[in-house]
Design a protein that fits this description.
0% strand, mainly alpha, transmembrane helix, globular, CHP02206_TP0381, 10 helices, TIGR02206 family membrane protein, transmembrane
Length: 238
């Protein structure tokens, strides 16, 4: 089993049994954790469970980095937790420990706008039980698990202003990553090259045009993400 954990297997494909199983498993974890927290847990227990979920995401990223270093595969240009999803997973305990609404209203749009696509069309090559497979799903489906938990257990909801806060912080992230990519010759945030799997960036032209054109798509996507929250809040307002 340990050998299988590290042995390369480039068998993953969109919609295969491993893909479907991961979606089903994380859906099950998400539904069960929200149900149990709301029905059986005290407020303190709800926060503890949230800490466990957030901590497990961060720990997965740390263990993956340790595995890459131990195997002599670690590369600063591709393995730092600087891709947006990896960064969110790595730093998730900051959110779960502080339960900061500011962090929630920023990442809720990042997760639904970007992470969801990564779950539907994974940029992944390894099947279970390879450690890359585990890291990928914990660092993507795990984020959706956490944001749904925060929404339905912490009862957090973004506001209209949250759209612009999230967009503004995302621009700061992009600027910082442009600097990192320049120094390391890397492609964090896919700012130098499109993902190898299909994505919305394929609708646009080659670099650097897809980066610029993609910026004009972000705010409309964030508005669409906000709509269910807007109508839900309106329905519950007397």
């Amino acid at each position: 089993m340990i050998n299988a954990f590290f042995r390369d297997n480039h068998n993953f494909s969109f919609g295969n049994s491993h893909h479907i199983a991961a979606l089903v498993l994380f859906s099950f974890f998400t539904i069960c954790s929200i149900y149990i927290a709301n029905k059986y847990c005290s407020e303190q227990q709800k926060y503890k469970l949230g800490n466990y979920i957030g901590g497990s995401l961060s720990l997965t990223i740390v263990l993956w980095i340790i595995a890459e270093i131990s195997l002599g595969k670690f590369d600063l240009a591709i393995d730092l937790p600087l891709y947006l999803c990896s960064f969110m997973a790595f730093t998730m305990p900051i959110f779960t420990l502080t339960r900061s609404f500011l962090i929630y209203e920023i990442i809720v749009f990042w997760i639904w706008g970007g992470t969801l696509q990564a779950v539907i069309t994974p940029d992944l090559y390894h099947n279970f039980p390879h450690y890359n497979f585990i890291k990928y799903w914990m660092g993507h489906a795990g984020l959706i698990w956490m944001i749904l938990y925060a929404t339905y257990v912490y009862q957090y909801r973004p506001t209209f202003k949250s759209i612009f806060k999230s967009f503004g912080v995302l621009q700061i992230y992009f600027i910082l990553i442009i600097g990192v990519n320049y120094l390391l010759g890397s492609n964090y945030a896919y700012l130098n090259e499109k993902p190898t799997v299909g994505s919305v960036l394929d609708w646009f032209g080659p670099w650097p045009y897809y980066v610029i054109q993609g910026q004009f798509l972000i705010l409309p996507i964030f508005f669409v993400i906000y709509m269910p929250f807007y109508f839900s809040n309106k329905r519950h307002t007397p």
